[in-house]
Each structure stands twice: as structure tokens, then as C-alpha cells.
Queue: 4 jobs
Job 1
Amino acid sequence: MCGIAGFSGDLGLDLLTRMNGKISHRGPDGSGVCHLPENGIGLAHRRLSIIDLSPSGNQPMWDVTKRAAIVFNGEIYNYRELHRELEADGFEFKSSSDTEVLLNLYLRDGEEMLSKLNGMFAFAIWDAPRNRLFLARDGVGVKPLYYAETPKGFLFASELKSLLEEPTVGRFLDPDSVFYHLIYLWCPAPNTMLQSVKKLEPGHAMFVKQGRLQKSWRFYQLPHDLQPPIQSVSEALDQVTGGLREAVRRQLVADVSVGAFLSGGLDSSLVVAMVKELVPDAKLQCFTIGFRDQAFAREGHTEDLPYAQRVAAHLKVDLHTVTVGSEMIQLLEQML
């Protein structure tokens, strides 16, 4: 989990630094800002290193020709294939990171790059020759991206609280979003709890120029029909199994140790089992939550720990337990 923030408009370095400070918990491995006052552009990043742990992977990152800069939160699972393709087309790289792959892919394909990405992402690219920002969020919205339009300019960030560092961002609650949150425990994009702040919808992208939203569009929609249609249960099982195995395989690529959340339920147990199948000797570290106060269970929360322990023992993986109790309420303000 990294964090990004930035703006386009009549806004300053002090604001950019404060916005980045609000998301410091998202990236313990590095922090960077890039302020271009002559263009009215600010980019900020908090880094959690996964691919290319060297300083070459630090952000904000410029391409070698200094035509574009990027801040990026996420992972591109097919970045190695794209890297080879771009190198064959003559693009230069100064790192082995997936971030630089995104940057060069944009320089080659523009916004059409989005159709080539397999991964989870939220990013902003400053296109210097066109004097505009390009922002995008992955197709199912794994990575968050909030934005606000104000008289002073356009602001974006991984978390809403970064935007509140700018006083011209309104603080009025959105009644519809409050209703959605009370009923569903979340509010669907583009709404947020504040009228002045929006979420970039999953599978959407936008151009921002001179502090104003220029264009927004959808680039991805989950397909609702299969061609040719599936003819049998066994065929469906083969396709689901193959697709899941390939997704797990792609997501094992990292320059750090890989871990997994394990609740003992069907989904997490299946993912961990496939990791063990794909990499039998992997020293997989798994994590689960246990409740100190059994009142949680009485209020309808299922205790995951016994089931996670059974699965961990069966698959021979290390299980780390984080035990929580009512004292967590004291940390609510800090978590928010």
C-alpha cells in the first residue's frame, strides 16, 4: 500500500507537503514531492517498496526524457511482459520497477495504455508537453483515489483527509452518502461523505488541465457475456480454476517476502492452498485476527481464529495472530 497526492492549480508546496504528511502511514519506505510552480502542478508520494527496493524506484518518478512524471499506488502484474515489449520498441529504463513501465507505456500509447494493464492501480501522470494530468483507477476499484474541485484548483489523494488540508475544500456532509453508509456500511462511487469530495469511479480515467477537470470517461466494464458460452459445469470449473491459478501466480511476483490474510473461509483458504501448490517450498507467512472479548462473537461476528488455525496446520504455513479487544476503540480517531 503506497499513497499518492497532488494538485493542479494555484496551490503551493506547503500544502503539498501537508497532504503527503496525512498519508504517511501508507508508505514507511520513502517519501517524495515534486512541485512545478510554473505549471501549477504538485505530485507527492509515500512508498511501500514491493518491486525494485532501490532508490531508483522512488517517486515521484520522471521518465529518462523528462517528458512525464508519475505517482502510482498499486501493482502491475504483467509489468515484466510490458517491460520487454517497451525495451524492444527502444524505450530506456533506469529501474526495474513497474512504475517506470507505466510511465513509458503512457509515452508510447497515451490513454490507450489502460487496456493493456493487468493489476490494481491508482495513478497520476503529469504530461509536460500537453500540460495536463492523466489520472486513472483500476477496473474494480481496489486502489482508492479521491478528488476535489475548488476555486483554487483540482486536488487528488489516496485518502480524503489529505484533501482537507486545503481550506477551500468544503466540509458539508452529503446526506445521501450518510444514508448509504448507515444502510450498507459504505457509499458507492463517485459519492463520499462530503459534498465537495468525489471518488474516481472504478475503471474510470480523467484529464485535468490548468486546475480544471477537462474530461472523464470509463475505460473498463466487467463483461457480462461469454463468447462462446460455457456449456457445462466441468467447463466452468476448469475456467474458474485456471483463471484463479493464473491470478495467484501473477501476484506472487515481489522483491520482498509474500504474505496472506487467512480467515479460514473458502476464499482465503483457496488462495493460500494455490500458493502452496504453485510454490511448494514457499515460507508463506499468514495473518489473522482473534478477539479477546467474546462479546464480539455474541454480536454476530464470527471468530475466524479456530478455522484459520485448522487451515494453517493442514497447509503447513506459519500463522500470526493479531488479538484485538475493546481497547481498540481508543484508537478510532487515529485510524480515521
Job 2
Amino acid sequence: MSVKVEIIISLTIALVSGTIYLIKISLQLKDYFEKIENAIHQIKADLEHDNEKQDEAISQIKKQVNYLHSNLSRLSPENFHWPNFMDF
């Protein structure tokens, strides 16, 4: 195989892997934001009907935000270990 073909194959594999990684991140973010949105709706409902649940609801939203923050920092590109595509 020529060097050009090997480079094209390597770049294609890297592009596909990067795309898969971005899709994985976007799906995780979607899930995290849905959890946060649900917690916000729960806070609104709790505040309207029962003031005693206010602290519990606020605690849940803080927990979800902290969870999102910790996972976002873990998903940063410098923590992603790219496979070595040159090992065919």
C-alpha cells in the first residue's frame, strides 16, 4: 500500500473515532440536562405545594449540577486517550 493510502485510511479512522466520541459526549450531555430539567420542575412543584420539601429539591438540583460538572471535566479532550491508528 502506498503511503498516501495509509495516511488517508488513518485520517478516516481518526475522523470516525472523533465523530463517535462527539456523539457519545452529546448523548451524555443530553441525559445530564434532562436530569437537571426534571429536578428544576420538581423544585417548582415542591415550592408550589410544600415548602418543607424546598431544601430537598434544592439539594437534588445541586447534586445534578455537580454531577454534570464532574462528568464534563472528565470528558475533556485531554482526558481522552486516542487509539494509536498507526498500528495496523
Job 3
Amino acid sequence: MFLKRLAFWFSLSLLLFSVQRSSASHSMGSDLTYQCLGGNTYQVTLSFYRDCVGVPADGWADILIQSSCYPAFYLTLDPIPGTGQEITPICSTEVTTCSGGTYTGIQEYVYTGTVTLPGPCADWTFSYNLCCRNAAITNINLPANSLMYIFATLDNTSGICNNSPVFSNKPVPFVCLGQQFCFNHGAYDPDGDSLVYQMITPLDQAGLGVTYLAPFNALNPLSSSPAMTFNPANGDICMTPTNLEVTVMAVLVN
């Protein structure tokens, strides 16, 4: 199986005092995973990370499920009880925009639902598309007009109960200007499968990536000296930021 984690969002700490945000955008990142419950029944979970200055999070999430073997259909995920908690990684004495303050605030919304697939197929895709990305993003063109597309795939033809990789770390770290910082997704596979990581262009919709502003690209998504490094074996991302930026990047986990 493989799962794509989109979008991995960075904010440099000094940026928090100067950015102007659009109230129409709110998407900072998201994870999509599935857990096998037996047979062809799966629990699908979406974690969505919201900019507290943006529009409210949706009360549900529609996941498109499709394959080459069966007609496509939607699964509606419902929010779990108590979802929408603030997860901003700042000192407890500071007040974020989630509570009327000035520091950038982040909330996590978790949606879940259960689906029984109609049968085996080698190319099941679970996907989620949302408008729009955070207007404060500085490394892609027209971020407030860009959609966010994430997906996970499944091959259930073997009859084995297969689970997607899951992530133990939130994809919204704050990084200090001029200080080395390394981030790891904390990904693991419940089935014990080995994982390999790849930096890719974040998707606007299926098969269509966002447009990076020069000189940025999927492998060089932010200003860093020395240049940002990425370890495909364990997913470590290390950088020493040199500019105030809000950057988006994507990591594919196989």
C-alpha cells in the first residue's frame, strides 16, 4: 500500500507577527489513513489542520472511493467527539488566533467512517479534495486559489487484511529562523511493512500539482543554508531557514 501525506506545512516563528491572512482560506495540511476491520471493511480517517483565522472547518468530509473494477462512490466521514482541539506548538502563556490573540493558531479536526468495499481490486484509491490552501503560503502561486488533494491507495486482491501507514507527529511545526531544525513524520506501518519516503509536488487535484514559485520546487521548497536535506530511508527533513516563509511540501510514503 502507499499513502500520501499532504500538505506538510512550515511557518517560521518570526513570521507570526507580520503575516496578513485571507479569511476565505484555512487549509494547512491533512492526513488520510485507513484501517482494515476484517474482510473488505475499512475504517477511514481524515485529519485536517485548520488556520484559526480562516473559515470554519466543515462538519463532515466526503471521501471519493474509486477503482478500475467498480463504479466510484463517496463515503461521508463524521467528526469524532471533541474534535477541533488547538495543537499550536507554542508556549502555554501565549495567546493564538484560536483564542483571539495574534500568534498563528492551528486546530486539528478528525473525521472517521466505515466502508465495506464491493470486492477485490488492485488499485483502490481513497481521496479528499478541499478548497482552499492557506493564503499566507509563500512558495506556490496563488495559494488562496489552490485546492488541496490527498489520497491513499489499497490493493486488496491478496485477501490479506492490509492497513495504511499512520503518522504519530503533526505536520505543522514552527521553525526558528537561522536555527537548524529536523522533522520526522513518525510514520509506521501497523502490518510491519518497511516504508520508503519521497518528496513530491503537492497536488491541487488528482494528477495536477501546484505551481511552485522560482526558485522553489518539490525538492527545494524553502530557503535554507545549507540546503534542506531529505532522507528517503527514514523521512528525516533537516533545514536551517534563512528567510521568513510559509512553505508547503508533500511527502509520499510507500
Job 4
Amino acid sequence: MGLLSDPQSRERVLLFLIRHNSKLCILCYALGLVWFLLLPLPPLSAPTYISENALLPGLVKREFVGGPQALSLSREFAANKALVGGLPVEWLNKTMTSLGLEVHTQTFAVDLPFPDEINERYHVRGTNVQGVVRARRAASTEALVLHVPFLPEANDQAMGLALSLAAHFRKQVYWAKDLIVLVTEHDLLGIQAWLGAYHGINLTSLGVRSSELGGYCGALQAAITLQLSSDVATSIDLQLHGPNGLLPNLDLPNLVHHLCLHAKVLCTVQELLPPQEDNAWWQSMHIMLLQALGQASTKPASEHGLFLRHRVEALGLKAINSHRQEKASLEKLGRLLEGVFRSLNNLLERFHQSFFFYLLPSLQSYVSIGNYAPCAAAILVVLFLCAVELWAKLNPEKERRTREAAASNPASIPWLSVIGSIVIAHGLGIALYLGPLVAHQRAANYFDLPEDEAVSLTALGIGVSSLSLPHRGSTPQGWIWLKLFALLELGMLLLALDLLNFPLAFMLAIPTVPAAVVSQPSHKTASIALLLVASPAVISLMGLAMKTELNPHGPTSGQLGGFIGLFLRWLQCLSQSILEHQSLGTNLYPLFTLGLFPCWLQLWHVALWKE
């Protein structure tokens, strides 16, 4: 503090920053990239462990022997599903009641802002069914959830296993928490309606209307979402992230991983095998990049993600049946789930001892927030170094300009010349946010397009048309003031985002920081080229291409390849991001339109500035 409070020392520091600004910017940017590449390696990554000792009882011998019953129930469920052409609510009520569960149903309706052509739905109507196993040793103050999403052509075995487990759990006397077996329709929409009703939240702003639940349990402590579509499984894949990059407490995936090791069931993450020693760095980086891309998309990995929004630690378990020889039966998987819920039943308080912010290079190692945060910090400091240099250029003339402005027209104050660009940039951001929903129906009727395509093309049209606005200034120093404001706004935006969703902030910082630093009228060609690469549309397009390339299954069959196929998938993702924001509350689209796009547009004005 003494160094900064002394005027002479402060001036020396400022002169050092100005004299070596370019070198410091390059050094910090390179340091951030290299640091990220080193994250999968020790000591930046550490071995995983269970922090909460109360979770260990689940490792003891399990007693579940209901494999044949689970198989029989899954066959009955599939037959009744085919008979009614949807969720067999009456059969579920009858079966759960016969197993001794307390059964309640909930009806819900969701009106989407425009048709979801991918899932072929618009006005959604559905029913959720919950069966409750009441704890014998407590007064319904806490509860655990075993969630089985209803899928029209899959997940029958998960339903049978959940019902068989509920029948087994009801016979045990050690339960201190209620157990809810929850069956929901219409994937994320159904679980959102149930969670809203359970916690008494009004979701009409998201287009959700639902009936009240007939029965309630205590505070939800944890939830497991189960996906199982075959009689055997070769591996269990952990699905981690929820909406807007939320993650469950690290103890929960560590618990499931340890139980899988104990049961000799292969456990994976991102559907990739554990890294091998001969290629450990790339395989670990592959897993970590897939997790980062998933969090950056702000879309939940599965239905479990919406529990995280309500501070309920949740995890998705997806059973995979591949060509591997070692296969786990329904009974073995049931014992695995029994161990998970027995461990969760032993918790005396909420998950809190392990990390809520982390990256997983593998299930055997993790990178904590203290080790990965410097990556983004090193890159973001470049924006503030550049801002200091610009401020230093303006500061020597500050007093002279102030005296001249006071003696002349107040409109000659330098910073007034950039207010128009700032207001226009943010106004266009608001137009890009609201325009697709306001004008998509008219565009669909005029061009004879499906409404979801009209939404995407309307957003694209607004974004492209904003590039043609005039960029003329009134003072020679106007572009410096505009760039200074844009750098500070972009830096604060990415810094705040880094605390909430590191992967998204880091992936945005990599292209936008160099473009922001280089942008100026004297380097017009380089500025335009870098800004085009750093535009929100190109960033999202590159993210989609990277995710497609890293996906272990590759592109979905039937999709076009090449740039045309990528562009068509990008248009679908654009309409889906708008739909998910309006119906699920994800924040990717408003972040791009109300935050990133205005900053980028101001820098675009700087690059094309004319006196």
C-alpha cells in the first residue's frame, strides 16, 4: 500500500506498466493458456477422496436380492406403456400402492414460447407420479429422491429397478430419511414442474402451470436420476453439470465412484474410459474439455441438473451396455444403488465438506477452484493492463481539456462523443434479446419457415445488420474513451462470470481478449479479422464444432457433415438456447445478447472509427 500511496512510487509503477505493457500482456495471456494445459498434471490435479466420513456406511455388505422382481416389473411397465401409448399412470398407482408406497400424482402444463421442432412439442401436457417410503426413525423432516424420467422408447429397466428397490427399502428399519420414487414426463419440463410445486415456487413466468402435490416430505437432501434401458450394463456413466454450469458437491460423484469400485462395476465420466498411462495427459484433457464444454453450454447434462438449482445435491447415473465382456445384472446395479442411498441416509447435515467448483480430468483426480482460477485471471488481467495504458495516454491532457471544455460548448467534452456508441450498442443488445421472440411469428409467416428457424434467422439478421451502423466520432480521442469503457465492461463481465461458470468465462476470454486489445483504427485490418473471430456467433460456432469433434460418439447419424451441416446444427442450437432460456431459465442467450454482444459491438465501432 505504501508503494501505491507514494506519488513518486506510483508514477514509477505506472511508467513500468506503460513501457512494458505489450510484453506483460503477451506474457499473461501465454501464462493463462499454458496453465490450463497443465491442469490435468500433478500437482495442479490431486487424487479424489471422500471428505464426509458419514458417507462410508454404504460400503458395507448390501442385502438387495430383487433382480428378478425388477426384471418382471420392467416387462410389465413396457407392456402397459405400449398399451396406453404413454406413461401408464394407473398401472404405476396400482403397482406402487401394492408395494406399500404412499402414492401421489401431479398434472402439469407448459406453454412454450414457440414450437420445439426437435422434440416435436409446443403445448405440453403431462403427469408426474411419486411414491413415498416413509422413514420409520424420523418425522419426515428430510428426504432422498430416486428419479426415473419417463422416456417413450427407453428406460423401462430403470423403472422396474426403482420399484423393486422401493419395495426392498420399505422393509428396512434403518431409514432416517423419507425416500421418494419420482417418475416424471417430458424430461426437464416435468421435473421442473414437480420441483416448483414441491418448493412452492410460482413458475408462471416460465409458462408452467401445475397442480399441487398430494403429499410432501421433508427438505430434499440429495437426488439420483437413473437411466437404464437394458437388462445388463457394462458401465455406469456419471452425468454431472446442471443448468448454468452448476455442479454437485464433489463428495457425491466420489461416493458413487468408490461404490462402483467396490462392486467391480466400471464407472466413467463423459462416457470415456479412465485415462491410461501411455496417453494420460490427452485422455485427461479430453475428459476435462468435454466437461468444460458441457458447463459452458449452460444446459443440464440430464434431468438431475434442475435439483442443483434448489441446493439439492444431485447426480445422473446412465447405465451403458456396450460390447465389453464384464456385465452387471439388475441385481448388481440394485445393490450399487442400495449402497448409495444407505450412505446418503447416514448424512447428518447437507453436503458441505468437499468442493462445489472443480474440474474432473478423471474420476481418480480433480482440479480445485484454487488451481484453475489463475488461468482465467492471468488472461483477464490483460484487459486491465490495456485499460491502464489507455488511461495513462489520456491523463496528461485531462486538466487542459477540462479547462477548454468549461470555456466552450459542453458538448465538446471528449467522453460525450462516445455516449452515442455506448447507448446504440446496448440498445442493439436489448433488440437482439427481445427481437426473435417478438418478430419470429411474422417472419415465419412471411418467409414460410418453421417458427424455430424463424427465431434463429431473426436473431442472426439483427446481429448482422448491427454491423452496418455508422462509426463516425467527433473528437480525435473519442475512440480511446470508447475502448477504455469497453475494456472495463468486458473485464468486469468476464471476471464476474469466472466466479460462477469458469469454463464459459475462460472460453470467451481466449478469443475476445486479443481482439479487444488489438482493436483500434490504425490497425483496421487486424482488428476486423480478430473481432470477427471473437464475435458471439463465431465463438458459439467454434464451441459447437469442438464439442462435435470431441464427442466420443461423433455426429448424430443422419446429420449433414462439413460446414453446412455445422451451420444448420448451430441454427438449431441458437433456437434451443432461446427456448431453454424462456422455459428453463438458462443464462447463455441473455449473457451473449445483453453482455457480450454490446461489448463486442463497441470494439467494432473502435476498429471502424472515423473522425
